[in-house]
Amino acid sequence: MTRSYYWLILGLSIPAFLWLLPTLWMVSLSFQPNEVLARTTSSTFFGLVPLPFTAENYSALFAFGQTPWWFLNSLIVSVGMTLGVLAVSTTAGYALARLDFPFKTPLTIICLIGLMVPEQAVFIPLYTMFADFGWHNSYHALILPRMAVPIGVFLMLQFFRAIPKDIEEAARLDGVGWLQIFWYIMLPLARPAMMTLAILTFLYAWNDYLWPLVSAQQREYFTITLGLASIQSNFAQSEGLGRVMASGVIASLPVVILFLIFQRYVVQAMTAGGSKG
């Protein structure tokens, strides 16, 4: 390896470390006693080394009875929303990319226009509609409004358009129907794009705060982000800096693990889209 290669690695490592520094600092502070953090503004290596070490902040959070339940709520909402987005986006994207039916072009334009509408603009109609149905403070109230997302339909539309039509034509010559083509041929080919969409949707659902804040008024339906914010609504009423940092680690750890496990699918989708484009 040439010297320039090592300089490149060094040049990339420095901004990577600076990007990770706040996260490392948050994790370190979460393992330090609140008493130590309260009486000093700096600790070993600017707080990056947790001395003295304690797991009291985490045990105190989980000792609060509803924290595990909020975790379960976030998992149910995130998985349900991810499955719903995949079902709607793949079917709609395939229909708009491959099938011929009346008003196809206007529907595609309407879907693309939806990309320009901020979600906050439809909160009042959504809240009123779900209130009329009596669906607030329920799982389906947290899941259904996010199932039809224009960006998901657009992503799958572009991916299906990039697949050569010769594959479908060969299947039709063998007497295969469009539903079988979609299920047995197109979906396996679209797996990288589906995994990318699933990861992005899960991350969005897990980190979502605004809609659960509007729809869930009962604490048993709080998600983890809303629940942790409710017990630490402001810094003065919280149990200390270490507890605040521990709640941040707990809320972000599942999505970090998810991305590390499935990041290769994101790379595959990007490279596939670039080569087909």
CATH homology superfamily name of the largest domain? MetI-like
Instruction: Tell me the number of strands.
Output: 0
**What does the largest sheet look like?**
none
**Beta strand %:** under 5%
At the first level of CATH, the class of the largest domain is Mainly Alpha
Structural class: mainly alpha
Determine Rg (CA atoms, Å): 23 Å
Q: Total number of helical segments?
A: 14
Shape category: globular
Taking the alpha carbons of the first and last residues, their distance comes to: 32 Å
**Fold-level CATH name of the largest domain:** MetI-like fold
Detail the poorly predicted runs.
273-277
In the CATH hierarchy, the architecture of the largest domain is Orthogonal Bundle
Q: How would you spell out the order of helices and strands? A: HHHHHHHHHHHHHH
Number of domains: 2
Helix fraction, binned, reads over 70%
Mean pLDDT, rounded to whole units? 83
Structural write-up:
The protein is mainly α. It has two domains: 3-54, no CATH class; 63-273, MetI-like fold (Orthogonal Bundle), CATH 1.10.3720.10. It has helices spanning 3-30, 34-39, 56-63, 67-98, 104-113, 123-133, 139-143, 150-162, 165-173, 178-189, 191-207, 210-215, 224-231, 241-276. The longest helix is centred in the last third of the chain and has 36 residues, at 241-276. It is globular and about 75 Å long. Residues 273-277 have low confidence and may be disordered.
